Amino acid sequence: MNIRKAVPDDALGIAKAHVDSWRSAYRGLVPDDRLAGMDCSRRAGRFRESITQEEELIYVAEDAIGIAGFLALGPCRDPGIDSTATAEVYALYLAPEHWRKGMGRMMSREAERILEDQGYSRVVLWVFEGNTRGRLFYEAMGFVGDGATKTMDVGVPMRCIRYGKDL
């Protein structure tokens, strides 16, 4: 597996990995109509714009077949946190056929290396409270819940838990 900085031509592959991951990981948590309504081409447009405008750091994980997943990183967006010292993993998604093969661990470690190289000393991320698989993954990677919560609207209100880790 190779992890590299995304280019605009990666947008559709990123969108497909994102949609496929959501549809598998969040079935039973997010309403089925919301999952069914996720559109790869519309998401690809958003990813292409974000990559082009460099709004966030986006990296792709690829294997011999193509894009398997992606990372989106940048300064922490949470109020009251020093975004010059604390970064945020905005997204870390793998297509379901790549789960439990070590790719997620490689992506998480690469995210930490990238952020540390940029001078960050801490990283945070948000996970749906009901996303047991995701929470266990991040805990295995050394992330710890810090007690912060927020609600995200994905067709229904979803409680999210913030995890953090010193780099």
Summarize the structure.
The chain has 167 residues and is of the alpha+beta class.
Keyphrases for this structure?
167 residues, alpha+beta, Aminopeptidase, seven-stranded mixed sheet, 35% helix, globular
Intertermini distance = 23 Å
Instruction: Give me the CATH superfamily.
Output: Gcn5-related N-acetyltransferase (GNAT)
The run of helices and strands is: EHHHEEEHEHEE
Across the major sheet, the strand order is: 1-2-3-4-5-7-6
Structure write-up:
With 167 residues, the protein is of the alpha+beta class. It has a single domain (2-125), classed as Gcn5-related N-acetyltransferase (GNAT) (Aminopeptidase, 3-Layer(aba) Sandwich), CATH 3.40.630. 35% of the residues lie in helices and 33% in strands. It has a seven-stranded mixed β-sheet with strand order 1-2-3-4-5-7-6, sandwiched between helices. It is globular. It starts with a strand and ends with a strand. 31% of the residues are buried.
Give the topology, please.
Layout: E1 2-5, H1 11-25, H2 32-36, H3 40-53, E2 57-62, E3 67-75, E4 86-94, H4 103-117, E5 122-128, H5 132-140, E6 144-153, E7 157-166
Parallel strand pairs: 4-5
Antiparallel strand pairs: 1-2, 2-3, 3-4, 5-7, 6-7
Helix pairs in contact: 1-3
